[in-house]
Amino acid sequence: MVTLKLKPLEEVKTEVLKALETCVNCKFCTAVCPLYEGWIREAAVGKTFAVYYIIKYNFPVGDELKDIVWYCTTCGRCEYTCKKLAGGVETVNTIENARRLLLHMYKLEPIKRHADILRDVQTYYNPYYTPNEKRWEWLPIDLPSKGEYLYFVGCTAAFRMQNVAKATVEVFKRLDIDLAKFSQEKCCCSVLLRTGFVEEAISIMEENLANLNNSNAKYIVTSCAGCYRALKVDYPKLVGDFNLELLHSAELAQKLMESGKLKLNGEKYKGKRITYHDPCHLGRHSNVYDAPRAILSSIPGVEFVEMPNNRENSMCCGCGGGFRSGFTPKSLDVAAKRLQEAKDLGVEILVTCCPFCELQLSQASKERGFNIKVVDLMELLAEIATK
Amino acid sequence: MLSLENIYEDLKNMIGKENVSISIFDRINYALDPMPYDLAENEIPYVVVKPANAKEVSEVLKYANKNKVPVWVHGSGTALHGATRPKRNCIVLSTSRMTDVKIYEDRGYLECGPGIRVLDLSTMLDKRGYFLPLMPGSRMVATVGGGISVNTSGHLIDSCFGKPIDYVLGLEVVLPTGEIIETGTKALRRPSGLDLTRIFAGAEGLLGVITKVRLRLVPKPGDEAQGVAFFKGCLPIAKAIVRMYMEKALPPLFCELLDETCVEISFGMRGLEAPEGSAVVMLKTTGYRPGEAKWKLEKIFSAFQKENPIEMRIVDDLHEWEEIWSCREVIYPTLIQKKGPAIIGEVAPSLPKLPDAMAEVLELPKKMETVKNPEMYLYGHIGAPTMHPHFVVPAHLSNEERRRFVREVRTKTEELNIRYEGAGGEWGMSFQRIDFIKRKYGETYYNILLGLKKLLDPNNILNQGNIEGW
């Protein structure tokens, strides 16, 4: 039995006002926001107070709000800084609540690309307007539908960055993991939740929850940071709890390495300088920082260096929160800034744990002339992991 | 009669449409400040403009004078005495585009725009072996223009490193009527005698818009030492500070107080040890020769010793020091996260009266009327000496009740400043402190300020309402 936990909109309004009680308007968020270029509205405080004055004083709701409240990747850098140095406002939740309110209570028309994505997820159960039956077509070998570890591939890996999906399956099969495909998989709905379409996501999320809980698997494994965050944080909050343990592929790989079941052959990458990009959804949103690092720093002969903005301070790649679809050129500017950080370190390879970050950073790397190879941790492991 | 659309058209023709906004949401964001109450209608600006240089600032000010529209200057909007919030519907002039920095090492100075953030400039200087003697707690966002306009020390103890104006060699200022003037010198000797730099630095944006600052480069003191001293309560710390000065111990760079509850909360959160029920003073000294900082700290400690600290030690482990320092550095937001919105006061008594002033500060909650016995905590740059009584604003208070509470806190703390012979030192003196100016210095003094304002700003364009007071 699945319980509906979705808060009514009136309660969300109160939640937004309450969240801002401890905002001291210090504007520290403007100092750490990847999008801040001089206008307060570009950072968290500018958005949250726009919505505060709408709710409390009926300020007008119009198109300009699309360029304010949706001009944000929801990366959470502001929230981390606010918690450490200021009023501790839950900015990510507040901005997402604001998006939900503006769409559903104030009837703001969504950004066209976001409306398209909603339509596609509702029609195809993925935002890539591809029939969902094709979700597992990339599989190089057949995977059973039942097993101890159920692979939640995620739409981006299934329909765009299939190299990540293939590498994940290859690595875990090589290590004799009882891996199965989640054959009933539909979009985790992270893309809807981040852009304000919470109501619309619930029924698909409920189906995923029920099917996962009925699968008799022990673990859900995903190699997508966005899916991981949704399954870990949003599903318990909005639809219910899992009876399986959730693991990111990096966490599973770390477990295997630490129990001696995964060894790393450093030959191929000997002498290479590599760095790691924390996906916002895996790092700040889900608190997983160590697993990828444990692996990368264990590769013999490889020089692993940290970017200046790492872990909780990691700089966003610019694609999340509906930003890539809503503000594509700007989102690539953000990606370019991140790649510059890597370039200044002299790295040849940038490793990440999210197919969407990889999609974004490798596109920016190619289009903006950075000569940095962007790979998923699982792609790296496919080349160097042994039993 | 100008309409919003007129203002928008005129200003965008002047400085470019991407640098002007009449969006209501931009307008409120450039008016909001740390005060724990919402904007009133008269506090909402008409428009936000971001000029690039003195010439554009001049055009905006001439326009404002011609049309009698007030202009508010916005650096970071983080002043703690209510000065940054507009008091009239106005044009907000943001300095955020004026962030150029040029470091002339061969000349011993730097020049920068007013909109460069203090921490950003400090980081640039640090990389080259220089020190920026400007340390507001808000340095992540506070602007150099704002810091010079208020002549604020923040954490930095005046008697150790002076005040920001001591390092200002010259300024470029746009007068309220639009003329652009330069003050000061390009030599390393600040002018003695008549020098209008001293009028504009510390003028809180009332007499002109600073569009360029020339600051002397200060080599970084390479030697540092830090320590903590725990006492049974705050009063012995007040006495210890008096001793420090009386015994001619050289004042430290930082000397910060946390009361017993603040110690319990903040040290507890970080798993740091502190004697039960103790208040703490934490210090950093600096020097240019190895061992100099530690020598200074030991001298301070031997003065402190006479007031019977529970425990006193030098902290050699920098990682430990970072943790201890962060207890003080973020006590304001820590208390806000735990207890809710707040208003803080600034009490800076004369040296011999520090213990008595502190005793009265600690009794303030009993004397409050708008809120009965509010929760209050005490911390501050005690070595300066400055005390910050931190009052929790009960969350259920309406906007009107909050304004009254804030006003009462201000009135009662300024009354202590008057009785205990001080005059602030960190925040400015305008708006919420005009009552203090009038009471402390009298009508003649206040009229000189009004006269100066009238002379330079005959149409009362800049920061209108701040020299008038509440």
Helices and strands in order:
The complex is a heterodimer of chains A (about 375) and B (about 475).
Chain A: H1 9-19, H2 28-32, H3 44-57, H4 66-69, H5 77-85, H6 91-104, H7 112-124, E1 149-151, H8 155-159, H9 162-174, E2 179-181, H10 190-195, H11 198-213, E3 219-222, H12 225-238, E4 245-248, H13 249-258, E5 263-264, E6 273-277, H14 290-296, E7 303-305, H15 323-326, H16 328-344, E8 349-352, H17 355-367, E9 373-376, H18 377-384, E10 385-386
Parallel strand pairs in A: 1-2, 1-3, 3-4, 6-7, 6-8, 8-9
Antiparallel strand pairs in A: 5-10
Helix pairs in contact in A: 1-6, 3-6, 9-18, 13-14, 16-17
Chain B: H1 4-15, E1 20-21, H2 24-29, E2 47-49, H3 54-67, E3 71-74, E4 91-94, E5 101-104, E6 109-112, H4 118-127, E7 130-131, H5 144-150, H6 158-161, E8 168-174, E9 180-184, H7 197-200, E10 209-216, E11 218-219, E12 223-231, H8 235-246, E13 254-258, H9 260-270, E14 279-287, H10 292-305, E15 311-314, H11 318-329, H12 331-339, E16 342-344, H13 354-367, E17 376-380, E18 388-392, H14 399-419, H15 434-456
Parallel strand pairs in B: 2-4, 3-4
Antiparallel strand pairs in B: 1-2, 5-6, 6-10, 7-11, 8-9, 8-10, 12-14, 12-15, 13-14, 13-17, 16-18, 17-18
Helix pairs in contact in B: 8-10, 8-13, 9-11, 14-15
Pfam families (chain A): CCG (PF02754), Fer4_8 (PF13183)
Keywords (chain A): 4Fe-4S, Iron, Iron-sulfur, Metal-binding, Oxidoreductase
GO molecular function, one term (chain A): 4 iron, 4 sulfur cluster binding
What percent of residues of chain B are in strands? 15-25%
Name of the CATH architecture of the largest domain in chain A: 3-Layer(aba) Sandwich
Overall geometry of chain B: globular
* CATH first level of the largest domain in chain A: Alpha Beta
Number of helices of chain B: 15
Return the CATH topology of the largest domain in chain B. Answer: Uridine Diphospho-n-acetylenolpyruvylglucosamine Reductase, domain 3
- Number of distinct beta strands of chain A: 10
The residue-averaged pLDDT of chain A reads 96
Query: Would you list the SSEs of chain A in sequence order as H and E?
Result: HHHHHHHEHHEHHEHEHEEHEHHEHEHE
Assembly level: heterodimer
Number of E-type strands of chain B: 18
Number of domains of chain B: 4
In the predicted model, the low-confidence regions of chain B spanning at least 5 consecutive residues are: none
How far apart are the first and last residues' alpha carbons of chain A, in Å?
41 Å
| Biggest β-sheet strands, sense, barrel of chain A | 4 strands, parallel
